[in-house]
Records
---
Amino acid sequence: MAPLDALYEAHRHRLLRLAHLLTGSHALAEEIVQEAFVVLCARPGPIEHGPAYARGIVVNLSRKAQRRRGVEERHALRAQVLPVVLPPELDCTWAAVRRLPPDQRAVVVLRFYEDASLQDIADLLGHPLGTVKSHLHRALRKLAKEITP
Amino acid sequence: MTTDLELDPRLDDLLRRTFDAVADQTPLADPGLAPVLRLDTITEAGRPRWRRPLGVAVVGSAAAVAVAVALVAGGPTDRSPADRTATLATAPPVATTELPAEAGPPADTTYQVKVWEDLVTEALAAGGLVSDTGAAARGWTAVPPQPWHLTSYMAQAGEPGEPPNTLIDLELFEPGRYRDDPVWAQQVAGAPTPGEAVPEGLLFLLPDGAGTVRTAVVVAEHGMAKIRVDGDPVPATDRLAAAARRVAAGSRGFDSAG
């Protein structure tokens, strides 16, 4: 199996879930993961650190897409919202996460879903470590305010 | 800056359980990228041409994507590495479909598709979407330019008196700017390094998870044009391609746009 095929088979679903969490849209997640693999296909030579590289592409495409969707929603245009069925407590949490700005949401998802270290997140997003800490602090403060009684 | 809230065990638990639950509900389509890549030409006389008009859509697995991208990279100046050539030689395309160089008359004439095409026509008539004022007068919604966008407009279509059900998103990329964006340079052109010219006339079609093609990007002389259709009905692929080419052809003046 070609390296790219193996990467695809082994990591596609995880990348899809990550993009879904970052964008809230399954359709958008599918498109983003596909675009990520098209980017990988176009890379010359062997792909080093393929899973990490693919994850970085997915995260950055998701942030870009989420900013765009935010504009659409502010203009009250149609936005695809994934119908997920969750217990009330988790549903409230998911709704609060979806209201976070793209960078804060990316940091929270990477921290609590991917278990990424703050330094890894900083590297992935291309932000200074202090900025990532700031995003995380603000995001958690908002979430705590909205979620906890 | 403290991040002590991160250590709140209840919030930590809630977030982890929420993400796991949502991720578990992510629909996972059948394996296979099912991409559609299309090489084509803009058929206006007197302009440089992409000299390899294959006229095929390639649908299939990741290997087939590699084939298509290798074909893109192997254009007039073949810069594909040996492994791409090997992939090209050995990976069979799952399916190929001949597409006409020029889209014919529409086969379906639903109201929404007609409105969709009218909006494209109107956008071109407005001077290639060059003016925020002109766009606003036509009911287009302007999106603040992204770093690599010249501008972007959205419009909606639907049955009279009913909620809009189609979102059309047209983007014109500032001349040359896409070459500064490594993701776009690689994604659209297969260019190994930012700054390399991409072949004019390249048409890139992106399907969604269900294999429906909703996005088309065309490399034009002065930049790129992208069309994305959200909602239903989705125009036939050849009509989407034709519309994208029209937008690209109509975009040639936007380097002087106000």
---
Amino acid sequence: MSTAKVLLVGLGPPQRRSIERGARLAGDVDAIAVDPEDSLVAASAGDPPAAAVISDAVYDPIRLARELARIDREMAITVLASPDREDALRQSLRFAPFVTANTTTRRTTENEQLGVDVVEAAHAAVRRRGHRAIVAASNRLNVEQASPALHGEALGRLVESAPIGVLTLDSSLGVAGFNRYAAEVLGVTGSAIVGRPVVELLAEEDHGRLTSLLRAAGADEHIRPELLGRLREGREQFLEVLAGPAYSAAGDRGVLVVLSDVTERILAERSRQRAEDAQAFLAETGALLDASLDPDETLQRIASLAVPLRADVCVIDRLEEDGVIRGAAVAATDPEVARRVVEIRRHSPVDPDGSHPVARVLRSGSGEVLEELDENVYRDIAQSPEHYELMRSIGYRSAVTAPLAARGRKFGAISLFSAGSGRTYSAADLRILEDVARRAALALDNARLYARERRIAETLQRSLLPARLPDIPGIALAAHYEPGEGDVGGDWYDVIALDRGRVACVVGDIVGRGIHAASVMGQLRNAVRVYALEHSGAADVVNAVDRLSDSLGIGHMATLVYIVCDPQAGVLEISAAGHPPPLVVEADGTSRYLMVGRSGPVGVGLAGQHVAAREPFAAGSTVLAYTDGLIERRGAPLDEGLDKLAEVAVAAGHVAADELAARVMSAMRPGGQADDVALLVLQGERASARLKLSLPADTASVRAVRAELKRWLGDRLPAEDVYDIVLACSEACANVVEHAYALRRGELEVEGDVSASESTIVVRDFGRWRAPRSSNRGRGTPLMETIMDDVSINSGESGTEVVMRRSFRVPVPA
Amino acid sequence: MTAFTVTQLADTAHEVVEFAGDLDFAVIDEVTEQLEPVLQRVSGGLIVDLSQTTFLDSAGIKLLYDIHGALTARGQRLHVVVPAENLARRTLELTGTTESFAIYDDVESAAGESSG
């Protein structure tokens, strides 16, 4: 095992010392440099590169992304981050150009252990080369306490002025001595307290617990800090108390009490707890609002929450868009009652203009309490004789109804009924119910708005993705976009046909979600389209896009990979800006990730620094470009996803591009995933001995036939032979276009077959072939005959077939 | 597409017509129409420059014969420029056209030959 170097960037002295200690425990540490001003780049310069430990005190996500973009080495990076910054910094780590990284979070509080982890990560990076181990520690390191050795008077002075309460007790737990802080906390002055039992001073209640605690301390037991709650001048006060045995100068045994006023902390914790409860409630509501839950299910849950705590029967009615009132959710202590209520709502719906409380509440917009229900009231509000009978048999005693209304919209009403429980509702119950109803209505409205926003974003997203991919000779293309479960993301793909049979492919990912991300995606996509046609170099395109995103002030980080494929030259040019590497699967089943042409993401001020690299592109090889949602699995290392993708793509074997894309999607994303995914498959056609083209019989098709034929024969024959055969075939096709179908539309079929010794071309039409009318059109056939060894023209009822054959031989000099 | 340009060659009475791209049956009608006024005004001779022509089919050959016919009727000459390395020259060879017209490697030698 080689030795590791650990470089600490921007760490405070206590953090530094802790890590140094831990790193030494792990051994094999070469040197520990400390350079708070310097960047990560310095750490990567050594050989092997140093492991870097950085702090969020000096690194924000943008600085981290920018520096990572300049590192082209494998190295271990540990980020010390407070929990609120952890996610943002982790995002930046993901965008490191050479990331095949495993990001591991250690919520380490043991400082030495973190030091050990740092060194292990450094060793892993050196050993594995292809991987970078990253440890993100969520907790700030504990600051070490100074422990000055103090004696005698100095200690006495220190204790007197210390911001912590100190009390000494005699053996009967009476106060013997105290410092200033203790007096303040206890709210006493002077020596009036000396000799008084401490339990009287400390606690208003629970003397017993405190007494036994202090007795135990006096009896030499170890006492953990205890929290005491008391009322001081009518206010709550919380004290943290530590006690232990103590001896006076004379050797008398007593108790030392150290106490601190933690009221503020406890109250803060309490209010945080309350906020957390509210948060938890919101989170639960959020879960209810999840797209997979329909509003009716949400209402059913609310109804179930009300019974039996607040009602014997809870009914939630919805006001439909057409003005009809429909029973949406019913809960009752007796399931049979619930069933019958559901039935009666279906049988006798509430008349919106009638006297039923739900109708009244919906009209007036304010809730109602019916304290006492009797048969007269039943009769008054019944929607049918059956309804009346039902109310009578359930024996409703009291009712309260509140409208479900939010943001000026009425969604329905929620009603509570009491029966067997004998509860009588009051105005106070109405207030609580109105509160619940308001929340429920907001939830319904949010669901409505969310559904609308999601629909808009999805429509936007879909409309921005190409409706179809272009036809590029020699290349098969397939693409997939799958939205995630949550908000629509900003993933996109695009294919742009360039000149000379080249094609540009782009897959990108806007950091962020929702309509905004989708519209940013639209801007960048169009930018790529324009620059792809304007610039010929891949790096130029990415740099131009980055410059544009700067000048537009888009304010979004984005990653993208831009690939130009030239199938005729057999070359790929790749520029990857903070994006996961494309995968290449060769015709022989080997695979590799293209870890070249890499730079940092777009939108962090790297315009002009993006690079590109060229790679061979062989016939029959396949390139997969994708967004990170395809390979990322919560809790799993990133390279596991990369390995799996390669495995799946190789296992698919020689399948068509769209089949490969479908297989990869289903294997990598068996269920719905939170993140959206874009996948683009680009496949160089395998050199085939046979060619078959079927095209409409028009002039454009003849040009396409020439291009296809030229490409097909390109590698097999000398350029002159290719030209000759293309010319002969073009003449035959021209005859079809000009003569076979007169003015009607029809098909043109071309088949080619080539062996080592000869080539056969068949040109077929399904019209009526007429002999050339004049010598004007007559040159074509003799030319065919000059070029080819055999030309036979077979005309029949169903069409005409021209079969041309040419042997390959060394031409005999004339 | 076939790009069609006409230039008056300096210091000579020749006009140069250049075809870039595929000169095939698909474009022949359009090219014939565009050539009409050029043929009308030519006084010295016409150089058809096929240096930038990537493909030539029998319809293209027929066009050359038509131009040749029109010019000879007025006592003028057609000069065809196709560099030896241009594959379009194959069509001229395969159709025996090289026997019928004067073929040159570049415009300068065509112009020099015809005026000298």
---
Amino acid sequence: MNMARLLIALLAATSLAAQVSYEDLVNPDPEDWLTYGRTYDSQRHSPLTQITPENVDQLEAAWIYPITSTTRLQAVPIVVDGVMYVSAPNEVHAIDARTGRNIWKWNRTPAVNRGPERGVSVLGDLVYVSTPDAYLVALDARTGSQVWEAKIAETKDGYYSPAATFAIDGKVIAGNAAGDYGLNGWLDAFDAETGERLWRWYTIPQPGEPGHDTWEGDSWKTGGGGTWLTGSYDPELNLLYWGIGNPAPDFYGDDREGDNLYTESVVAIDADTGKLKWYFQFTPHDVHDWDSVEIPVLVDAEYEGKPRKLMAHADRNGFYYVLDRETGEFLHGTPFIDELNWATGLTEKGRPIRVPGVEPTPQGNFVCPSTSGATNWMSPAYNPATGLFYVAVKEGCGISYKAKQEFRPGGFGFMGTGYVESPEEPWQMFVRALDLTTGERKWEYKQITSKQYGAGVVSTASGLLFAGDDQGFMTALHAETGEPLWHFNTGMRISASPISYGVKGKQYVAVAAGVNVVAWRLP
Amino acid sequence: MNRFLAALLLAPFSLVAADTNNPLGNSPEVVESGRQLYNETCTVCHGVDGEAGDRAPAMGAARRYAHNTEEEIQQVVLRGIPGTQMPSMGLSEEQSWRITAFIRSLRAVAADFPPEGDVARGEEVFWGKGECGQCHRINGRGGLLGQDLSAVGGSMRLSALRSALTEAKPHPPLGFRPATVKTKDGKTIRGVLKNEHNFSIQLLGDDDRLHLLTSDEIASLERGDTSIMPTDYDERLTEQEFRDLVAFLSRLSASKPSKSR
């Protein structure tokens, strides 16, 4: 029979259940990696146990997939039933996750060159990506065909959207970036099927709203507060947790006296209404560009003898925080770096006790950590079996400068100058394991020669932790001890967080390394 | 930049006809009158409707031309090319511009010179009698096996669009080659190959799902030599329906505007 005719005949009435349901996102198949942090709690912990501390030294490269339009991929791949989705600015690639072969590729045209791209989300038969021209685009997961697009912000105003999109029940949440340009940020929720915008929450309180008075004069109008990474979600509480970026101008705080809410905070947003439930500010009136976008990790654990819904957050400012995620109550905080000179500690409410004289100056002033931060947007992980929170850490100080600057609309830098690495001691990257509730350091792994942030970690239920570094190495560490058990030189700086997934019973570890996505498995 | 090139580059994002230096403009009427004049004047050597002829090349083939701007084309039509077999045909200035509009329309993307026809009827044919929507998508509606046509008018020449509907091609492009796979665990899957190599295939099945198989899982793989795209639309549709369908497709040149509010 003529195959063409046969196919046409068979095409009638094929309507199937969607590939990824909301229930799947809440409780993903062990082999899948369906959201940025694998699960809504962003624990970044794979239940797969095929690769173990005993056999990890046999791990070998399965395939390498290049995406040469960019120099440093930052996206976390998503894996659905053997199909991997990876994004680069203006691009999404669907890859056979066993073989590294391309299935389809989507390009945004015309392509605007602005900022990185941190990942897609999936729901139903759609893949959601945000773009450098600040749109949210929905693609058919099977073909890459564009189904709809929705505007997040005006490109010409200087906005772009590098944030990994975040899919929940019937909605897709999208963030944007522009804090360093004096443009105010927000979070948007779009209808997952139609792209209609359902709500918007502004990170800088509008006149008349609570928190507006934390801004001097009109400084709120150019206050920044980007939403440029992604969030976490508690389905039971129906709360979305998202870290907010820096106030603007970043280093010059003289004209924006006040705490500058909700910059440098984590916010809990009602997912149905887009209303703020609570917030916790890590760095009031920040002048060091310590964006608090770092992923909030949600853990249900015992705290002081009682089961509690906790949030753990290692902030760019050098403190590790434990909060009650129902109320935002501060429970505990402690530095996770050795060199921290800007605060002597935290108050009972979690507010930093500032050391005077470390603010940026026109001549340059010494501060630890540097602006690049004690950690940054690369993801931490939590292993429930060890009770340890794993985080990529940078030890190192900086010299920060300030200068008054006039705001210019249209997406021009509004940072009030900047920072350099301290000449006294080079920066140094570590992977550290912290006790979840106390923040006590259990072990550390020094990544010799590595000084640039960007590479995150992934934990597995077999007791492994995989970590990348700026030298291009992927290293498997023992989750209990930090002992290195395997390594692979990818040859390019890793600026993304790894994942672990499975296809047909075989476990893989993968990461975007430089321009390549690299995947490993046992022989 | 060459205006024609500029028009081509801008075409996918523009619904209006391309910029023109043609004093008569480039409306469908001018193009149609140019086509008639061309067929009366030029077809001794060139083929009908701009196709290749016995002694001279096609005007709208996918190749590089020596004369690309409207002015260059018009001068050749009016004066011929000295030293070659291309003569001056004794046309008036106005006639030469009409023929120029027609020749340019052959080379531009369809959306630049969308042909006349009932666009609404053409859309009905697309989703109805033509059954195009069973395989093709427009702005999220339709089938998956064929190419997404949301911007087809902005990316294909009119001649290529017409021929895609009427002429069988020997090799379907990568990503659309039909195949039937029998797996070692006894399943038969039909669909199109999105990608293949010696060691694996990536198949989009007629069940609208992706099937990713390695060679050790495949018992047999039968590839179709021709696209599943029918190419007898000039026969299965009436002349008017065909014209309306082409008019509709030619005007598809951008994805839907943003739905945000």
